[in-house]
Amino acid sequence: MSQKKSRGGGGGRAAPAGDGAEDLSRPPPLQAVLLADSFTLKFRPITLKRPKVLLPLVNMPMIEYTLSWLESAGVQETFVFCCAHAGDVKEYLEKAGWTGKAAAATAGSMVVTAVEWRDAISAGDALRFIDGRGVIHGDFVLISGDTVSNMSLTDALQEHKDRRKKDPLAVMTMIIKHSKPSILTHQTRLGNDEIIMAIDSETKELLSYEDRADNTQLYVTIDKDILANNPSLQLHNDMEDCYIDICSPEVLSLFTDNFDYQHLRRHFVKGLLVDDIMGYKIYTHKIHSSYAARIDNFRSYDTVSKDIIQRWTYPMVPDVLSTGNSHGNRLHRQGIYKAPDVTLSHSSQIGANSVIGSATIIGDHCRVLNSVIGEGCKIGKHVLIEGSYIWNNVIIEDGCKVSNSLICDDVHLRTGAIVEPGSILSFEVEVGKNVAVPAYSKVSLQSQPKNEDSDEELEYADTNSGITDSPPFSSMRNNADQATVSSAEDDPEASEAGTHGVIGYIWASGDAGLQEEWRQSIAPIPKEKLEELQHALSGDDDVDDSEEERDPKNNLDDDRSSIVDDDYIKFEKEVEETFQRTLNGGTRENLILEINGLRLAFSLEHEDCAGAVFCAVMKSALVAAQTTNGSLVKATEQALDEWDFLLLNYAKTVDEEMEILLKFEEMCQETTKEFSPLFSKILHVLYEKDIVSEDAILRWAEEKEHADESDKVFVKQSEAFIQWLKEAEEEE
What is the per-residue pLDDT across 213-254, written as a single tens digit (0 to 9) for each? Predict the structure, then answer.
């Protein structure tokens, strides 16, 4: 990955195409159009002051990840379309060395040109403007500046070109990846609602795209002509749209010809899919091991940040990427990144998967867990920061607590302040002494505009008109839903500005109110909400069961048996993915609830969970041992110690303990043969840690007595231990 100082670029104009015959025979350079405006309001009030693409993502502006990936993927020329805060974006591009003199001084790197039009109100307007400039000469990559990826474009580009040769109407290739939505919330891990896609299994042509499915219905509606004309159609709700598109130049012409096309997916993609006259086609390219994700809301901000820290996005990671004015981050053990000039008290604890920026000072007895702290911050004593994002030059005084929240530049938390989960404190907000900011609060020095009813509005909308009548946060002390503040009588020192209440305006929630804030929040989904969703799901299952009993067609035992087997395989995979999300920074408190929800969704028994959970834990131990080149037995002991509460929750009876033993046998024979020579040792560990009992082990051995010799391999390996248990039982 090249650093800024070695990057090329061009300020102001695109590179000339050339006039000679040699230039005409040469294929056009691979170009990209990067939209530096999301044309939504999801990151307000923050984006009133700073454009979304310049918001720090693990202490690096979002657009930096996008541009770095485009350059590494072989894009030769990128046009950055600027609208809201255009001056800030252009200034950053020049300072970072993407445009201007620094970029022009280096040959051979990607040429970046900033294109500005402040009158655009949608992505469609942006593309019409690009088309009017006449700067795109061939296939191009369409992407927004809030996208992080490390995928190679080679295969997708070649597929797109090959299709174009056979069919000129194949104008776009969309990048997608597997991402199973939660059965409880119908959302992906990025906080996006599940998308229903119909894809031709042979050609990979996109036939239907529905991003606003009604999850209250248990069916989807597909045009009968699609079903009739595509016998190999596959219907997916387990695909994530990466919002990376490979487009032919005709895409720009289509936007110019159709002013109704504003939104890329809702208008353009759906419009092409239902247009029988022109016949244009959209195809998909599925990525597997590569990473690609767009930051569309605060939950995806949190998820992608964790993925970056855990290096799923390599080489787009903190210790590889750097900007000209930043000190390099150094990777330490347990996924901790620290700049070399951090001042850290010896009595403070930095937990795994945390990042500490340059020139930050952390006082005595602080705990920073699973969090990102920016540059130049001053953290006092006895401060707890958990699952949060603290940007630059923030002051947090003694005794404060920040949980699963986002704190912007220059915020000041005075002594004893508490920021509850899901809160967003915009730039320069001050929180007074001992004040508690309620969960899911959004606080800004700027009042909330009245007209905010559409995500299609611009980030740069005039905030001086239509101010709400809501009072400053600090004056709302009698509202039970707002902060609890001290009075001047209670605190004689609270007379100066900012030590009393909160300096700023609290913003009202959207149409759904606080009830739905959890859906796209940095904070984990509340336990109460998961229980509510689980209860609703269990109610649906009760109805389904009663219907099955009334229907004699559902009494075919053989068919039901095969369905159950398939369901268990899917269930086991879902449990493993849920467990992996928790390993990657999810909330442990909700893990059992989520697994129970999966059990209900697949209509399985409690004992079915034991083997699936055990399998997920053991696979995590195997990965840990392979990563550190350590002992597999030791890694297994550590994993069992860490997750014993989870295993014991599902291994309460001898039957459930038997499920664990049978699953362990299966793993050793099929999926994780690395455990095979260690079976007897790990069996002893399971016994010592009370995960499986003496009764379960002896019963397992007894049931194997009349089995085939091939099924007795692990009983024979554990013969000495089993004999010891029998003798101990006889002595008792």
Answer: 555 555 677 777 777 777 778 888 888 889 999 999 998 888
Q: Is residue 678 within 8 Å of residue 633, measured between CB atoms?
A: yes
* 332 dihedral zone (left: phi>0; alpha: psi -120 to 50; beta): beta
Rounded CA separation 64/72 (Å) = 12
Phi, psi torsion values for 267, nearest 5 degrees: -105, -55
- The structure tokens 């004699």 sit at 552
Q: What share of the chain is helix, strand, coil (3-state, %, to 5)?
A: 40, 15, 45
* Listed residue (284, 272, 270) closest to 239, CA to CA: 284
Lookup result for tokens 């005709």:
250
Question: Which residue would you say has higher pLDDT here, 194 or 486?
Answer: 194
Q: Residues for the chain: how many in total? A: 732
Q: Are 304 and 191 in contact (CB under 8 A)?
A: no
Considering Cα of 622, then 625, then 631, then 637, what sign does the dihedral take?
negative
Q: What is the pLDDT of residues 611-643, one digit of tens each?
A: 888 888 888 888 888 766 668 888 888 888 888
Helix (H, G, I), strand (E, B) or coil at 379: strand
The pLDDT of residue 214: 55
Sign of CA dihedral 669, 670, 674, 675: negative
Long-range contacts of 637-640 (CB under 8 A, 24+ apart): 637/685, 640/685, 640/686, 640/689, 640/691
Nearest to 121 by CA among 473, 461, 631: 461
- Which pLDDT band holds residue 546 (cuts at 50, 70, 90)? very low
The reply to whether the predicted model has a pTM over 0.85 is: no
Query: How far is it, in rounded angstroms, from Cα 419 to Cα 403?
Result: 6
Condensed to tens digits (0 to 9), the pLDDT of residues 308-358 reads 998 888 888 888 886 544 457 788 887 889 999 999 999 999 988 899 999
What is the Cβ-side half-sphere exposure of residue 404, based on CA atoms within 13 angstroms? 21
Which candidate, 637, 647, 585, places its Cα nearest to that of 616?
Answer: 647
By three-state DSSP, how is residue 438 classified?
coil
Instruction: State how far the alpha carbon of 571 is from the alpha carbons of 283, 377, 598, in Å.
Output: 30, 45, 7
DSSP line for 262-304: -SIIIIIIHHHHH-TTT--EEEEEEESSS-EEE--SHHHHHHH
In degrees rounded to 5, what are phi and psi of residue 600? -65, -40
Q: In what order do the strands lie in the sheet with 233-236?
A: 206-210, 196-200, 233-236
Q: Which long-range contacts (CB under 8 A, 24 or more apart) does 91-99 make?
A: 92/54, 92/61, 92/63, 94/11, 95/324, 95/325, 96/4, 96/61, 96/64, 96/323, 96/324, 97/4, 97/5, 97/7, 97/9, 97/324, 98/4, 98/7, 98/9, 98/67, 99/9, 99/10, 99/11, 99/12
Judge residue 705's burial from the number of C-beta atoms within 10 Å of its C-beta, 0-12 exposed, 13-18 middle, 19 or more buried: exposed
Q: Compute the distance between CA of residue 409 and CA of residue 428 in angstroms, rounded to an integer.
A: 6
71-123 pLDDT, tens digit per residue, is 999 999 999 998 888 889 999 998 888 887 556 555 568 889 999 888 888 88
**Cα 508-514-518 angle, rounded to 5 deg:** 125
| Displacement of CA 713 from its chain's centroid (Å) | 43
pLDDT tops 60 at residue 537: yes
The CA-to-CA distance between both ends of the chain, in Å, stands at 67
**β-strands 367-369, 384-386 pairing:** parallel
CA-to-CA separations, 362 to 308, 404, 405, 412, in angstroms, rounded:
23, 19, 18, 15
- pLDDT of 468 > 50? The answer is no
The predicted pLDDT at position 477 comes to 37
Residues 642-673: tens digit of each pLDDT: 888 888 888 888 888 888 888 888 888 877 88
Cα 526 to Cα 210: distance, rounded to the nearest angstrom: 28
The residue written with tokens 């895409």 in the block is: 251
